[in-house]
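#help-structures

NK: newbie question. if I give both the sequence and a SMILES, will the prediction place the ligand too? trying with potassium ion
OV: yes, paste both and it writes out the complex. here, I ran yours:
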Amino acid sequence: MYLVTSEQMRYFDHYTIKTLKVPGIVLMDHAGKAVAEAVVKRRAKRVVVACGKGNNGGDGWIAARWLQHGGCSVHVVTVVDPGNLEGDAKLAFDMAGAANVSWNIYQPGDLGGSSIELLVDALLGTGCTRPLAGVYEQIVDEMNHSGVPILAIDVPTGIDASTGEVKGSAIRASETIAMAYEKLGTAVTPGAIYSGHTHVVDIGIKAPLPEGMASYVDPSELRQKWGSRDALSHKGTFGRCGIFVGHMQGAAILAAAGAARTGAGLVVLGTRGSISLAVLPDYVVRQAESPVSALEDCQSIVVGPGLGTDLEPLVGTASVDEMFSSKRGVVDADGLKLLRASNGLRRLNDGWVLTPHPKECANLLGWTTEQVQRQRLTAAMQLAERTGAIVLLKGYRTIIATPAGEIRVNPTGNASLAVGGSGDVLAGVIGSLIAQGLNGFDAASLGAWIHGRAGELAGAALTPISTTASDIVDYISRAIVTFFDGIGARN
Ligand SMILES: NC(=O)C1=CN([C@@H]2O[C@H](COP(=O)(O)OP(=O)(O)OC[C@H]3O[C@@H](n4cnc5c(N)ncnc54)[C@H](OP(=O)(O)O)[C@@H]3O)[C@@H](O)[C@H]2O)[C@@H](O)CC1
Ligand SMILES: [K+]
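OV: that's the protein plus ligand as structure tokens.
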């Protein structure tokens, strides 16, 4: 499912209106009617619609007209004098006025009626460009504190529809009705947290799709690229995934388990010393003074899980330089420290996937963790651009960014994944997919999806409270079954 920015949405609107000759008020009528239908579905009988100055407010006036038409008790509170409305929004107000929809100009402390069952946020949508202030901030704070559920039209007011950033007050909606496409800013956090459940409605917008649109990770797209295993295949067909084993060996073994369950032909553990933990006979263990040389024949390398300070003596050495320039793989956790170079960040190729959590991302960018969490999309895009690698920024609605600015957002996963070792499993899963021939962007996207779904399934069976990283590994197979639509992996 595509996720669009405000700018792309303006292009879609413009193309539909100018080229396809569909008047803007027709689109707005479809939008307002869809909102009214969503209100009716919620069985809300006493509804207040809060309208702003632009076309988002226009959607609100139309929704109010349709609700009145359907016999609902509806009232509009507007933050602007309707006499100052322009274009389609003015037309929408005229239609509502002719249908005798009641309204008043917002006065602080008066949301327009008692015993309201639902508030509709039609204050600002894709046109919100700055932090809320004045009357917009007052009404948003009052709506949030009212205790009444809020249905947002298109985008909750105060969210940047393109980036998901929230620079001040913003509506906390329980549901958002998105016009034509979900906006990128309501798919990623923090915007996603403010949006509640988002439903997309078709309002008749159509236009040729621009290149490189952002999307949710989509199994139907990735199914064509991964999973087929014909009868003549052998272990060499599915690649060797090498994993560095550092001081904290458990983390590397979890990564190995993730890699094996996701289908690498061979998983190789490269170590300088011996491995003291029990290792399943499924993996090959190789000892060498330089772990880089132990994994020389691997198609992908996972650097980081449990590494500690183990590779630090190798920083800047020819073998690490050689690995980053000639190999592909995953850099996670302590491995990310290898990316710091004397003149900034090391340049990699897009066969490498970096999997930082927000604090690690902040350390690499020289930001604070809070800054990364406020601007997750920007942070992921900047790190990808500066390193030349694919970046997977962990957290709810994991973001996967390419150096060229392509974005995917992972919809799977829940709190079951918030457990030590979960990230190690993810690194192994992605390393395995790279070894099997997927490019870094697809491997990171599919890896995030499978890992997230495995966490959901493990949590459903075992409760999120008691799910461990090993449980996530155990549920990878079932996650892969659901990836293939529940019909099982192709043979
Ligand atoms: N025909 C169409 O195109 C269709 C559009 N549709 C609907 O329209 C919505 C987009 O409408 P829109 O472009 O009018 O923007 P919208 O969000 O209503 O903002 C309006 C104005 O508010 C202002 N403003 C900005 N930030 C502010 C702030 N923080 N605090 C205060 N004011 C602020 C700024 O004006 P300024 O004050 O800068 O002059 C801005 O121009 C879209 O989300 C969808 O719901 C659908 O119905 C389909 C058909
Ligand atoms: K809104």
